[in-house]
Amino acid sequence: MMQRPLRPEEYSLKETSPHLGGGGVSGDKLTTTYDLVEQMQYLYVRVVKAKELPPKDVTGSCDPYVEVKLGNYKGTTRHFEKKTNPEWNQVFAFSKDRIQASVLEVIVKDKDFIKDDFIGRVLFDLTEIPKRVPPDSPLAPQWYRLEDRKGDKGKGELMLAVWMGTQADEAFPDSWHSDAATIPSDGLANIRSKVYLTPKLWYLRVNVIEAQDLIPNEKNRFPEVFVKVMLGNQALRTRISQSRTLNPMWNEDLMFVAAEPFEEHLVLSVEDRVAPNKDEVLGKTVIPLQNIDRRLDYKPVNSRWYNLEKHVIVEGDQKKKEVKFSSRIHLRICLEGGYHVLDESTHYSSDLRPTAKQLWKPSIGVLELGILSAQGLLPMKTKDGRGTTDAYCVAKYGQKWVRTRTIIDSFAPKWNEQYTWEVYDPCTVITIGVFDNCHLQGGEKAAGTRDTRIGKVRIRLSTLETDRVYTHSYPLIVLLPSGVKKMGEVQLAVRFTCSSLLNILHMYSQPLLPKMHYLHPLSVMQLDNLRHQATQIVSMRLSRAEPPLRKEVVEYMLDVDSHMWSMRKSKANFFRIMGVLSPLVAVGKWFDQICHWKNPLTTILIHVLFVILILYPELILPTIFLYLFLIGVWYFRWRPRQPPYMDTRLSHADTAHPDELDEEFDTFPTSRQPDIVRMRYDRLRSVAGRIQTVVGDLATQGERLQSLLSWRDPRATALFVTFCLVAAVVLYVTPFRVVAFLTGLYVLRHPRFRHKLPSVPLNFFRRLPARTDSML
Fold first, then answer.
1. What is the spatial distance between Cα 682 and Cα 684, in angstroms, rounded to a whole number?
2. What's the Cα-to-Cα distance from 89 to each of 103, 141, 161, 364, 776, rounded to whole Å?
3. Considering only CA atoms, which of 434, 497, 498, 489 is closest in space to residue 470?
4. Which of 68, 494, 553, 697 has the least C-beta neighbours within 10 A?
5. Res 174: pLDDT
6. What pLDDT score was predicted for residue 561?
7. How many alpha carbons lie under 13 Å from residue 264 in its C-beta half-sphere?
8. Using an 8 Å Cβ cutoff, are 419 and 35 in contact?
């Protein structure tokens, strides 16, 4: 069955009116603290501990656990062996929307091999359970005497607290949820909400200066020496030293990304290229990062000599031993605190501050995000013969990542979780992604599976009005090898609050990146390599958290593969350029119509304006700026009222050819068949051939300009030089206003005085020589 094509409005943003905060919106300011989400009611049961439980087996002891039962939902604590005074301190949360029973049953049982024994229970009528709303202090647990099945008082007591609350309750994140009843205990950690902080990243600069007194293994040749530097998985090497002596020099900078806490050591090895694919280690040194100098600007750091140690195998003992000798290496090493370590694409940066905290400026505001719900999610996997989706959200801004809890088996999950970030720059982007959790089984069952992406939303803070609550339903769109697909919608509430409007406006005059990026810039190649290393470090650290934020999730949020070749993106970028140039083309066409008197009245008005500006040239700049001001005021009526969202038309996702999409999703290096790769290579050659022609034409025009004065064509240069002399004399004796006036009249002349043939200056320019004649 073919999927029907989606209409453009189905890919668009929709404004929503959720019942936020359990109250209403009053003039864009909301009435409660947890105010950007809809309130969700939960029944909370905190099982603290028990005492004086009666023995149930022949040993005179019991293995107690507690079962909390509400209708069809049942949660159990862990059990203790041979303990009559156990402590659990576990919280259970039952969604009020799904409660169908009228009685809450808390049962203490004894774990047994055949059948668990009943010890006692406590019953609660749901109509009598108290409500608690933060910031009220938590409800104090009380001791309850256990009853038998008949309702008579038995032996043993259980300490409990039972209350009705919302998701704003501090017990909510760590509680067992009734909708997770089917999840095994080792999978429960993977469904909880969590806030993560990425490690603090530094650029590490290693300046390799020189080495002294190297001892090569072969004495009869000049060594070809280079230095290899390693930090964790990162490895860089210097060029081979030009001074082929035992005291080689390099004076070369190598840049790495280091993450706090500095667990890894910097390893340097001086190596000799003895054959094309054979290098011999002449010496090594290991440097802990904790001892390295940190700097905030470009002030010189003291250099140091480090002794090199050689690894040799001593005869009779196969262990590697380090033998110290007189070789040493001269290094200048520092951790750069004045740069911002880029771990995401610069187009969607969420943080632009330098690494060193001393250089941070005060925050300018607060970003609040309410992750409400999703609607119309598609089934992402099959379970028990039917489609299912276990969705969770991830939001990233600056160093703080958040993950909502996973809602089990729902195509319309409701999270209603609220998070807050400090904002230091308004020209930053928050990214929200929705994923399907494939690790609910926990343990080895989930090994090797990957969480599936459902879609992503980016919101640029500078496009938001301050202190306004934006409630919209964003389309979740992913690009698959089969084409673009809408996976559902996610409903968000966003508010950007600023402490001072003047501070925000001042930020627009400041450099985007810290000043070290401009005073001592890194090359584009360096920045690309360093960004790749930074994303690897961030994804590795977050994947080691509990619950882990997995590598595929982090890479999707950070747009790791955004630099890969894509025919679709190339087309989209070409049409973006055309969209930027189209107003200039339109102005050119309009001016051409004026010059050709298509509308005589407009042309006459332009003549009048032109004469006024010639007579009063001091009005030219004020007129231009006044015109731009009026255009801006005119467009204010049609200003965007909604945040930006993923645009399939702009991305050319809806018109991409299947083969182009297959190429975009190909691995690197390619895994496709040779004939497909050959066809794509030929297509790329044809596209590159057209680009090559355009670049060649641009070079030709530039070389023609150069040849005006180069005497490559002696007659053309003689004509141009003579013209320049005559023009200099004429312009010297003629007032500038007269020249400008005559030039304007000539340009705006009536069609009766025009020729269809090209003008004399254009003919002259096209006849000038270029260096194309010398091209092979």
1. 5
2. 22, 10, 10, 41, 82
3. 497
4. 697
5. 80
6. 80
7. 17
8. no
Residue 85 token pair: 């005074």
Structure tokens at 676: 């497909």
Tokens for 326?
Answer: 């007189």
* pLDDT tens per residue across span 336-369: 999 999 998 888 899 999 999 999 999 999 999 9
What is the rounded CA–CA span in Å between residue 237 and residue 226? 7
Sequence-separated (6 or more) residues with CB below 8 Å from residue 683: 567
E strands within 167-200? 176-177, 194-197
* Whole-angstrom distance, CA of residue 128 vs CA of residue 149: 21
The span from the CA of 486 to the CA of 654, in Å, is 11
- Written as six digits, the tokens of 501 are 């409007």
Q: What percent of the chain is modeled with pLDDT above 90?
A: 38
How many other C-beta atoms lie within 10 A of the C-beta of residue 52?
10
- State residue 219's pLDDT score: 75
Task: Report residue 282 as tokens.
Answer: 């002449």
What's the CA gap between 770 and 712, in Å, rounded?
A: 9
- How many helices (H) and strands (E) the chain has is answered by 12, 32
Average pLDDT of span 285-303: 89
Return all residues near 678 (Cβ < 8 A) that are at least 6 apart. none
Distance CA 541, CA 551 (A): 9
CB 40 within 8 A of CB 95: yes
How does residue 444 score in pLDDT terms, banded at 50, 70 and 90? low
Distance between CA 419 and CA 403 in Å, rounded?
10
Q: Is 222 helix (H, G, I), strand (E, B) or coil?
A: coil
Three-class SS state of 90: strand
Which pTM value belongs to this model? 0.83
Check if the beta carbon of residue 467 is closer than 8 Å to that of residue 29: yes
* Angle at alpha carbon of residue 564, lines to 232 and 7, rounded to 5°: 130
| Residue-averaged pLDDT of the chain | 86
Helix or strand holding residue 551 (H, E): helix 551-557
Kindly calculate the radius of gyration of the chain based on its CA atoms and give it in whole angstroms: 36
Give the pLDDT confidence score for residue 107 in this predicted structure: 92
Using one digit for the tens of pLDDT, what is the confidence trace for 195-231? Answer: 999 999 999 999 999 998 888 877 777 788 999 999 9
Q: Given this model, what pLDDT does residue 185 score? A: 67
Instruction: Render pLDDT for 98-147 as a digit per residue (tens, 0 to 9).
Output: 888 889 999 998 888 778 888 899 999 988 898 887 677 788 899 999 98
**Cis peptide bond prior to 640, omega within 30° of 0:** no
Q: How far is CA 532 from CA 355, 542, 554, in A?
A: 17, 16, 13
Q: What pLDDT band is residue 322 in, cutting at 50, 70 and 90?
A: low
Q: Does residue 675 have a pLDDT over 50? A: yes
Contact of 24 with 480, CB cutoff 8 Å: no
- DSSP one-letter string for 343-412: -S-GGG-S----SSGGGPPPP-EEEEEEEEEEESPPP-EEETTEEE--EEEEEEETTEEEEPPPBPS-SS
Q: Would you tell me the crossing angle of helices 567-595 and 674-707 to the nearest 10 degrees?
A: 30
- Residue 376 burial (C-beta neighbours within 10 Å; 0-12, 13-18, 19+): middle
Residue partners of 731: CB distance under 8 A and separation at least 6: 739
CA neighbor of 341 nearest in space, from 558, 575, 107, 38: 558
Give the other-Cβ count within 10 Å of 387's Cβ.
Answer: 12
List, in sequence order, every beta strand (DSSP E) within 461-582. Answer: 469-480, 483-498
Angle value at C-alpha 386, between 383 and 388, nearest 5 degrees: 65
Question: Could you tell me where the beta strands, DSSP code E, fall in 276-345?
Answer: 278-288, 293-295, 304-313, 320-336
**How far is it, in rounded angstroms, from Cα 663 to Cα 670?**
9
Whose CA is closest to 354, among 374, 365, 340, 334? 340
| Euclidean distance between CA atoms 621 and 629, whole angstroms | 12
In the structure encoding, which two tokens stand for residue 396, read together? 């990233």
For residues 239 and 254, the answer to whether their CB atoms sit within 8 Å is no
